[in-house]
Records
---
Amino acid sequence: MKVIRLGSNSPNLEGNAVSALMWSDLDERAVRMARALAADAVQKVGNGHPGTAMALAPCAYLLFQKHLRHNPANPHWAGRDRFVLSIGHSSLTLYLQLFLSGYPLSLDDLKAFRTAGSLTPGHPEYGHTEGVETTTGPLGQGIANAVGLAMAQKHTRALVDAGEYSDLFDAKVFVLAGDGCLQEGVSAEASSLAGHLELNNLVVIYDDNKISIDGATDLSFTESVGERYRAYGWDVIKVAKRANGDIDVPALDAALEQAKSSTSKPTLIQMESTIAWPAPKLQGTAKSHGSALGKDEIAATKEVLGLDPAVDFFVDEAALTHAREVSVRGALVESEWQARLDQWQQKDSAGFSRYAALMAEPNLQTATAALPVWDAGSKVATRKASQAVLNALVDALPQLWGGSADLSESNGTLIEHSGSVTASNWAAKNIHFGIREHAMGAILNGLALGGLRPYGATFLVFSDYMRGAVRLSALMNLPVTYVWTHDSIGLGEDGPTHQPIEHLASLRLIPQLAIVRPADGNETAAAWLEIIRRAQPVGLVLSRQDLPTVTTSSSAITDVARGGYLLRSHSSAVATVIATGSEVSLALAAADQLEAAGTPVNVVSMPCVEWFEHQDDDYQEQVLPASLPIVAVEAGATASWYKYADAVIGIDRFGASAAPAILFEECGVTADAIIAAVAELNR
Ligand SMILES: Cc1ncc(C[n+]2csc(CCOP(=O)(O)OP(=O)(O)O)c2C)c(N)n1
C-alpha cells in the first residue's frame, strides 16, 4: 500500500496547524468509489441529491476514518463522538460512510436508495438506520440538535463529576452544514447560544459551495458567515478549496485537529467545495444539487475518477477492506474506554453510581412518592403546580434537565435550589435558552438524543415559533416535554397577541405528539408522572390563572394516565360534558346546575386526547357511552372536538385585552353556554 504523507500550509488556515495526515492511495480510491456510488444511487432511482454527496465524499471520509471516535460494530457505544448531517438532503454523504465504515448498511441498501422500505430513505431517519444520530432534512435543525448533544455531554460530565476520569465524558459533536442550514434562523439562535456557552466540544463544518437550489447563494446570502460566527464567540477556520476545485483534505484535517483541541469555543470550519466535483459539465451548478446527473455525465465523471464508465455501483474491494479497518480501530477505542470506565467504577463507586443513575430509566416509585398533593378547597395555577412538581422531581430524577426561553418564572420552570447553566456551571439545573424558541425546541431534541429527559418552556402562543422542532420531536418520538403556559384567554390583559386560540387544535394534529392540559394541581402532578413513564414527546399545556382543585391526588394518578375519565357520573345522565384544563371546573359548575334542574350530566375530564385514544374500546365506551349526546368545552378553537362531540363550546375568534372573566363571558365559554347546549341536544 502506497502511503501518501500530506502536509499543508494553506494560507487560508488560521493558526499554525499543519496536517501530517496519513492518506494512502486506498483512501483516495475509497473516496473515488464513494463519489461514483453517489452519482449511481441517484441515477438509479431517478431522484435525489448527488452533487453535494459527490463533493463532500473526501470530507466525510476523513471524518469517519480519522477523526470521529466511533465503533461501527456498536453504533450505540455511550462514549462515542456524534456526527450530525445537518444537510439532510445529502443523505448519501452519510450512507456512503456508514457503508464504507462497516455499519450494517450494504451495497444493496445503497442500490435501494429512496425506495419503499429501504434503510436509505431520502433524508436520514433516526431509529431507522443504524448510525443515524438524528433525523435531518429541515435545514438548520441539525446544527441546533448538535448544540443540544454538546450540552448534554457537558451536563453529563458535570453531574457525574468523575474527577481524573472526566475524560470519559469528553466526546465531541461534529456537524456537516450547508448554506441552507446557515441561512435558517434556527441555526443562528442555536449558534449564538453555543458561543455563549463556550461549547468547545462542538465542531461545525460549513460546506461553503456557494450554491443552493435557486442558483448561486449571492442571490440572497452575502454576509460574512465567518465574521458572524466570530461575533457569536466561535473560532472560525477557513479551508480554501484546491486549485482544481476539490476539497483540500490536508488543510481540512489540520483544521479538524485544531478544532478538537479548542478549550473554550465551538469551531466553525468554513470549508470551500465545488458541488458535484469532478463532474465535467455539471460541477459547480445548482442543477447538480437535486437532480440525477444523467448517464453521459456520470460516465464522463467516472472517467475523470479513473473508473470504468460502463460499471455502475462499482466496489473497489481493496479500498473497501481498507476503509472497514476503521471498525478494528473503533473496537479498540471502545474497549479502552470501557476499561477506563471499569477502573473508575473500582476506584470511585459513588461517582459511578451517579453515572449509573443518569443512564438508568427514571425511578417511577421515587417520583410518585415525591409528588406534591393539592387538597380540596385549594387553588393553584397549573403552571405553579408544575413548578412545584418539577422542583420535587429534579433531585429524584437526574435525567430531567431544562429551562425556558426567558420566561422561567412565568412558565414555572425555575428550579429553586439550583443555579443557572453557564460555561462554568454545567451541573446547574436551569437552562436559560434566551428568547430563542425555535432553537430551544431543536436543542431539546439534541438533549433527548444525548440521553436526557429534557423540558423547555414558553407561552403556548409561541409554540408557533418552535413548530419545526416540535414536529421533529414527534417524528423521532423523543422524550421531550414542551411546557407551554398561559394557555388561553384566561391569561387576560396581555391581549390577543398572547392568547392562544388555534394552538391546541393545531398541535393535536401532529402525529405522535401528546397534548396534555391538566385541570388542577393533582392532574398536573399526575401528568408529569405519566410523561416520565411514557418517555414520549408531550406538550404540557398550563394555565396562568389559579384553578380550583377538582380531583384527589391518588385518583388523578390513575385517571390522567388514561387520558380521559369520568370525573362525575350520574346513573340518569342525559349527556356527557367533556372538558379540559381550566374548563373542567366550568363543566362541574354547569353540571351542578343541570342536576338541580333534573337533567344531570356526566363530566369527563380529558387532559390528553391522545392517551385516551390509546385505551381499549370498552374503556372508551364506559367514559363516553354512545347512548349519550356529547358537549365539549375548551377555551380554544372548536375544530378538534367534533370527532367526539355533538356540540362544542370554544373560541373561533381572536381574544382581546381585558380581564379573564370578561373575556370568558364575551367569548361565550360559560356554564350557561354548556347548560344551553345540553338542553338543545335533549330537545
Ligand atoms: C427548512 C427547509 N427549507 C427548505 C428546504 C428545501 N431545500 C433542501 S436543500 C435546499 C438548498 C440547500 O442549499 P445548500 O445548503 O447550499 O445545499 P447544497 O446545495 O450545497 O447541497 C433547500 C432549499 C429544506 N430542506 N428545509
---
Amino acid sequence: MDMRVQSAMRTKRTEIQQVGGLVDIPMLKRYHQLEALDRILNSVNRVRDLDTILDTAMDNIMAVIEGSCGAILLGDKEPGVLYHRVYRGLSAKRLDEIRIPLGEGVTGMVAKTGEPILIEEVSRDPRALPQELGGVKGLRGFICAPIKRWDDIMGAIVVASDQTGKFDAEDVRILNSFGDCLATAVIKTVVERKISKGMARYQALLSYALGAQEDERKRLARELHDETSQALTSLTFRLQAAIQMAEISGFGDAKFKDSLQKAHASAIQAGKEIVRLMNDLRPTLLDDLGMPTAIYRYAKDTLEPRGINVTMECIGRQYRLPIEVEVAFFRVAQGLISNVSKHSRAKNVSIRVECNPSKALLYIEDDGIGFDIDKITDIEPGGRGAGLFTMRERLRLVGGTGHVESKPGQGTRVTVTVPIVRNLEDLADDQDKGLDRR
Ligand SMILES: Nc1ncnc2c1ncn2[C@@H]1O[C@H](COP(=O)(O)OP(=O)(O)O)[C@@H](O)[C@H]1O
Ligand SMILES: [Mg+2]
C-alpha cells in the first residue's frame, strides 16, 4: 500500500480520536471510506494513465477494507476472460498467467452478472475456482464487486482476508462504489484506445488511397503522353500535310478544304486539352523542374485564361523536397489555385513558395470575394468542403498544417507549412559531404 495513503489516514484517525475520544468506530470507518472514495474520484478525474488510477484505487481500497490481499481484474485484453491488472499481497509470478473465464468462479460470476458477492469462508464455497487470487492458501473472508457502468461490466475488484467473516454488507457497499467510480476511468481508456486505433486505421487507409490515386494519375498521364498525345500529334501533322497537298494539287472544292481546316483546328484543340489534362494529372514539371515551377505553371495556365493576374515569388528553389512531400504540396496548391479560379472572382493572386532545409511554405493570397470560413465545418452533401478537408488531411499525413484566413468581401489568404523531417543518417551523410541540399 502507498505509504503516503497509510500515513495520511493514520494522522486523520489520530486527529478524530483526539476530539475528546467521542468518535465511535463505525463512524470513523465511514469517514475513511468516504475519504478513500474522494481520493479515487480525484485521480479518475485528474489522471490520464489508467495504471496510475488503478494503483491509487488499490491502495485506498486496501486501506479502508482491511483484507490481507486484493486485486483489480479487467476483461479488456481478450474477450470473455479476466486478468489481474493490479494486486496487493499476491505474487506476480502466479497471477500474470492466470485467466478467469467470464461467468466462472466468484470473480467471473460477479463480472458476468454485475452483482457483488460476500463470502464468509471462501475455502468452503463451491463457487470459488482454485486459481482465484492466485490460489493463495488459507483465504477465508472474500468480497467481490463489479466494475460497471450501466449494462457494461468491465471487470471486478476482489478483497480477501485470512479471517472468517471479516467483511460485512457495508464493505460490499463501499467496494461497489469503488467499482462504479473506476468504471468511468476504464471506459475512458477503452474509448480512447478505440479512437486512436480507428484514427490510425483511417490514416493508413487515407495514405494508401492517396498513394493509389497518385499512382493511377501517373499511369494515366504517362498513357496520355505516350499514346493519345502522340497519336494526336501525328493526326495534326497528317491533316496539315493533307491541307498543303490539296492547296498544291488544287484537289477538292472550298467546302472540302474548309472541312480539312476545321479538322486540323479540332486536332490542335484536342492536343491542348490533352496537355491540360496531363498537367492536372501529373505535371512533368513536378518531376523535372520541381514543385515551385510546377505550381507557377499550373497557376498561370489555370488563372490567366480567366483574367486573373498571377505574381509569384520563390525562395530556395534549389532545395528539392522528398518526392511524397512535393506531391502533397503540389496537390494542395492545385486545390487552392482551383478554388481561386472557381470561387474567388479575384483580379490578382500572389503566390509565394519558400523552401529551406527544415520546411516548405506556401502562401496564396487573392483579392476576391472571400468567404466565411467558420461556415465550412463539414462536407456538404453536394461535396462543398471536401476540397479543403482533403487538403488538411493530405497535409496531416506529411506532418504539415494549413491555415485559411478569409472574410466575405476581404479576399482569402492561405498559409501551408510542411516540415522536412529527414532521418539522422541522411543529415550526417550530407554533413560529411559538406552538402546543403535535399
Ligand atoms: N479563394 C476562395 N475565394 C472564395 N471562396 C472560396 C475560396 N476558397 C474556398 N472558397 C469557398 O469555400 C468552399 C469550400 O471549398 P472546397 O472545400 O474546396 O470545396 P469546393 O471547391 O468543392 O466547393 C467553396 O465552395 C467556396 O465557397
Ligand atoms: Mg475546391
